[in-house]
Specification:
- It comes from Thermochromatium tepidum ATCC 43061.
- The protein is of the alpha+beta class.
- Helix content is 46%, strand content 10%.
Length: 413
């Protein structure tokens, strides 16, 4: 059971001691102290979201061939155990110890509000030789424009091109969509779903497009065709691609549901934003697969952590999805970002991501989805009968419908 952390614990720690007293108190409120048994091993990759400090006991820091013994109370113990940039480091506790975890993102937002979370240039990335050959290869592939970016699926490209015609008709869109049975079925299912259901059941794609509208159809077609991109022939990469697809589908469905409860937002556009928020992992995994690179899980994870957002920006820019989607790829993982007065699609995806993490993958002092600025900006907190309603939790049926549609599950009418 984690111990309660008091603000004065942070007073001597570097670099957090440079924060003012109120900022240290806020950082302490989100942190935790955990008991760690002797023999426990932790890695920089696993602990990347947190700044770790040794409060009691002893730990051996392993950096490649180099080992450093750190004692609690020493000058070294006042610094973070792991560097933010050396993700292949490990540590083995050589005595029963106490470990302090502080939220790295919260520290960064307090230390430098509005600081860009992702470097604008690859040259600004802190890439060390010790982090493995893969990271270097990916870095140079990006820098030299040799990283193969995925192309939009055929039906999505055709829809993008057709939408340039201001006089586009539902009949023409139907002819384009019908070349892809999976997309066709998805559109018909959505038109007959609880979201758009009318007096009559829609039997064909042309009438589905008429019911949904052309703008909605465009976003939905883009989303329904994306599953093709999360495929690989490499047996070693299949589990990662599948995991990335399932995660993206869940966040996409959550984004759709959240947007339905927020004025001014298009739920279908939010669905697309959620689906492509982490698209940068696709070229990275594809690069490893195509070049048959033998790589360890830690080395691959380090490359993904450092490069996935920057690569994702290259992909959505290449697809021409617009600045709103680029913003989602760039900043939807910055939980505390609050640099705009009005909410945007990035806020929607940010809340969706945190909601999923809170439900299934929470580790350490991760903020609750309803504790970040985006949640309040979106107006998701409102009372009904004197009690606050969790609109996401109340929308489980809607969530299931969207996830089934994106995965191509369920039968058409």
């Amino acid at each position: 059971m984690p111990q309660i952390l008091i603000a004065s614990t942070l007073d001597d720690l570097s670099p957090v001691h440079d924060l003012d007293r109120d900022q240290r108190a806020r950082l302490a409120a989100s942190g935790q102290i955990a008991a760690v048994p002797s023999g426990k091993r932790v890695t920089a990759i696993q602990e990347h979201p947190w700044m770790l400090y040794l409060l009691s006991g002893q730990v051996c820091l392993i950096q490649g061939e180099r080992k450093e013994l750190i004692q609690a109370g020493s000058r070294r113990a006042l610094q973070p155990l792991f560097s933010e940039h050396h993700l292949l480091d490990q540590a083995v506790f050589t005595a029963d110890s106490e470990l302090l975890r502080l939220d790295r993102q919260l520290y960064n937002s307090l230390n430098a509000p509005g600081r860009p979370a992702v470097p604008g240039l690859l040259d600004e990335l802190d890439l060390s030789d010790a982090e493995g050959a893969l990271l270097g290869k990916l870095y140079h592939a990006c820098k030299e424009d040799k990283l193969a970016l995925p192309t939009l699926p055929k039906v999505a490209r055709a829809i993008q091109e057709a939408m340039k015609d201001p006089n586009i008709t539902s009949a023409r869109l139907a002819r384009i969509v019908q070349v892809d049975p999976a997309v066709t079925g998805g559109l018909i299912r959505l038109a007959n779903s609880v979201f758009y259901r009318g007096m009559k059941t829609i039997p064909d794609v042309r009438n589905a497009i008429i019911r949904l509208g052309i703008d909605v159809t465009r976003s939905v077609v883009m989303s329904l065709s994306m599953q093709q991109l999360f495929r690989t022939k490499s047996p070693l990469m299949k589990h990662r691609m599948k995991a990335a697809w399932n995660r993206s589908v869940h966040i996409s469905a959550l984004s759709y549901v959240i947007a339905r409860h927020c004025p001014r937002f298009n739920p279908e556009h939010a669905m697309l934003a959620g689906l492509v928020h982490d698209v940068g992992v696709i070229p990275i995994l594809d690069y490893v697969s195509r070049n048959e690179i033998q790589v360890g899980e830690d080395e691959l994870e380090a490359a993904i952590i450092k490069l996935h957002r920057l690569v994702g920006e290259l992909v959505v820019s290449y697809w021409g999805l617009g600045p709103e989607i680029i913003e989602v790829v760039r900043h939807s993982g910055d939980w505390y970002r609050d640099d705009q007065e009005l909410p945007n699609y990035c806020d929607i995806v940010r809340v969706a991501r945190l909601y999923r993490l809170n439900q299934s993958e929470s580790r350490g002092p991760l903020p609750r989805y309803d504790e970040v600025p985006a949640y309040y900006k979106l107006g998701l907190v409102f009372p009904v009968g004197g009690e606050t309603v969790d609109v996401i939790a109340e929308a489980s049926e809607e969530l299931a419908v969207v996830m089934a549609m994106l995965k191509g599950e369920g039968k058409g009418p």
